[in-house]
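Quick one before lunch.
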Amino acid sequence: MTATRSALTYDVFVAPEKPFVAPTPAVGDAPAWDPTTSTLIFGARDAVLVDPLMTVREATALADWVALHDRRLTTVYITHGHGDHYLGLPVVLDRFPDARVVATAGTVRQMQDGQGLDISLRTRFPGQIADTVPLPEPLTSPELQLEGCPILVIDTGHTDTADTTSLHVPDLDLIVSGDVAYNHCHMFVGATTPESRAEWIAALDRLAALHPAAVVCGHKDPTQGNPPAVLGESRGYLEYYGQLRDAAIPDGELFDAMVDRYPGWVSRQQFLILGAATTP
Ligand SMILES: [Zn+2]
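Model of the zinc ion complex:
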């Protein structure tokens, strides 16, 4: 018997930009973490949550918001192995203990290998992150199901880190991009290379080829909607940044050129743009 398909919809929770412990940078904004999203995709009865955020406070607010939707949370999906998107998982699981937590095998591997990054996040957000975070179950199929509708996992390779993914929900013409695309937020490009930027741009082109009606980015200016134009904007940002890097101009000029080109974009943190060498 064919499972009954039901109409899906989605809703987006944005955790506001939040300060963190670090020396005040010489250029750019005071240390703060980009506003970060979590997306709930739901039908008449069930729901899938994408990325359970980072701090205990924001994951608690997220769990309250999920509960307001009155759906059974069947699944939590994690798009990539950066702790700002998943360290809130135990808080969400406390509220929804029956939810299955899944990610690709690549993401699980990045989470296992990324313990050092988690330690640095715990130093930046002291006392604000759960002590222990369970690992997701690695997916054996690139497809989730929600009330008979497919949610497709797209392997996007090395974008802002290795083994990243996005989700495609054909019934909604929706892409939940993770950190493959950013929405009016300065992008985490400081750690990129010419090769990784080319791979990142190719991933953006593959998402654009799906002609989505909406794209929810992992980081967004909360005043913005979820237009598919973010894919082209992110591509343009990577290309312009690559041109400046190729020109080997000094860091200060590079920073100024990026914020001049994107004056309305939030999170002008120097470590995002200039890289690990200048990470506070
Ligand atoms: Zn992120």
